[in-house]
Amino acid sequence: MEAFTGNLASYRLQLVLPPLFATPGVEGTLRVERGAVRREFYLRDGHLVGVASTDPREHLAQVLVNLRILDAPRAAAAFEAAEGANLPYGTFLVQRCFVELSQLTEAMEHKAREALFDCYAWESGEVEFTPGLPLSGRAVGLRLPLSTLHRDAVSRVQEWAQFRDIFPRLDTTFRVFREFAVETFSEEEDVLLDLAVGGATLGELLASAREAPLFAARWVLHLYRRGALAPHRSTGLTVGESTEFTELLALVRAFLSSRKYDLAVALAAQVLERGPVPEAHALYREAEVGLTLALSDALFALDGRLVFEPIPRPAPPDLTADDLYLYSKLRGSRSIRQALRTAAMGELAASRSVERLRAAGLIRVAPLEPGAPEPAPRRTTTDPYGLNLGDLGGN
């Protein structure tokens, strides 16, 4: 393909990328730049083979910390040592046994995916394609199919659109109700709630994310659905909508009574897309707890028994970027519960993702050792507002 330059206001990445992987034999550098952030994506034969970025959040050390592959002090010490030894950071980490090569590859692929996904959401800036790869682009050992990346990126764009329908203004501030589902709060959610208590705007909440802004948006949406965050500025409900919701809420209650928690969660979430409805928040919390318990009870009993198989390159096409992200979180977490609570996708979605990883053969369960006791069952009693009254295992 020939070189081209354009503006993202007219040529969004969603339109630019397909010809680059649909045309055989394309090799070149796709540069995307907005403000102080400049990213270069190195493409070859329909694959992403390398990424360069000026965003500090995408430094390999930060990515390793976010994925819990390394803790922050160890990642920083390794970086200083690599600089002193005049070695590339990734090379140093593997040579000195800080991380396994497979873990380093997972982190680099995660960094590459999230950088590309973020650019899909840009509505301004410059985009440029230049045939040929620089030496740095040829040296990186990634090989991610662009067609799969495009599929996941489009899904992320749609997720952002749904989020903006619910929260159209970045200057929105929130009231905080910590009493709702407090047992299920994660460290990331606690940080967002503290910021909201201090008067932070939605834009500031999203900017606080250690990883991609979409991850913070997912936490915000999750907290809103539970009723823990209530926007001060809301479009509100128009006259007649409360009557419309009466039938929908009755259906949610019917789903709860028949333990069809997945349908209850989905329907309550649809109601909350129209505006804050107190009963919908309460029903969502109850349905979420019931569904999460149903999905994750068996998973929590597998702590210490998960065996991780190497990810084939390329990864199975039916797995999403979120599935692969959770795979890395599981490998780096002390327990399954910690991984599910800290993954930026919600405990419910994470539980389903684990099942997909098991079906794909990337994780399997080792048998219990002879004489080992079966894990004790967990209490699952909830009150009408979805607050877990039993022992969920703690942190």
TrEMBL record:
Residues 20-161 form the PatA-like N-terminal domain. It comes from the Bacteria. Residues 368-395 are annotated as: Disordered. InterPro entries: PatA-like_N. Pfam families: DUF4388 (PF14332). This is PatA-like N-terminal domain-containing protein.
